[in-house]
Design a protein that fits this description.
seven-stranded parallel β-sheet, 254 residues, alpha/beta, three-stranded antiparallel β-sheet, 24% strand, 39% helix
Length: 254
Amino acid sequence: MFAQERHNEILNILHKEGKVIVKDLSTRFNVTEDCIRKDLKNLENQKLLERTYGGAVLIRTSAPKQNIQSRKNTNIEFKTVIAQKAFRLIEENETIFLDISTTNILLAEELSKSQKKLTVVTNMLDIVSILNNSDNNIKVVCTGGELSKDLDGFTGSMAIESISNYKPTKCFIGSCGVNIFDKSVTTFDGEDGNTKKSIINNSKKTYLVMENNKFYIDGTYKFATLHDISFIITEAAPDKEITNLLSKTNTEII
């Protein structure tokens, strides 16, 4: 195998698992550990990874600031799996909160097609529109407040004041990224972040709905830590190291 082919394969492993170990790569490619260290140094010089003791990790990227419309059609397959998992967790006669999230749009569609009797509080217009279906048994409460056109929902002090009047049994929160090392949960908009924080503080259980790739992405505004999150719903089980670190904050993967 040529060095470039090995480099490409190392990057593929990093994107799947989030980290690589020198010893494991040496065995996998049947080359010396010194050879692997040179590979990792080469890739680090290209700013494609960050070397650590005994291996390397994927360089964390920053979440781009995008409006809801541009995010709706990304990772649909993964988001659908997450939405279906979340749907199965919602019980009859519950009051739940659906936060501004493209995954929650898909969850609202699942709820709209069901006959579950419950109350949904939300600050997202898309979700209100989807649940406005006379054939279902869902009572819909919209927070109101200042409308963010980029987010297609209500954020800020007026929305937060309304949110404080409700005590949902479960809330489903979207996020731009989670850093398992500093335990931060982030978004890219401060008003959205403060609104999410209020939802979490007023809910009995918090479920983060997000794709696995967001374990390697950071937003610009921290609104919670992993200690605030009861569960993370993803499309599939993440890397074992991530699961182990999450167990230290009593955050369960679904």
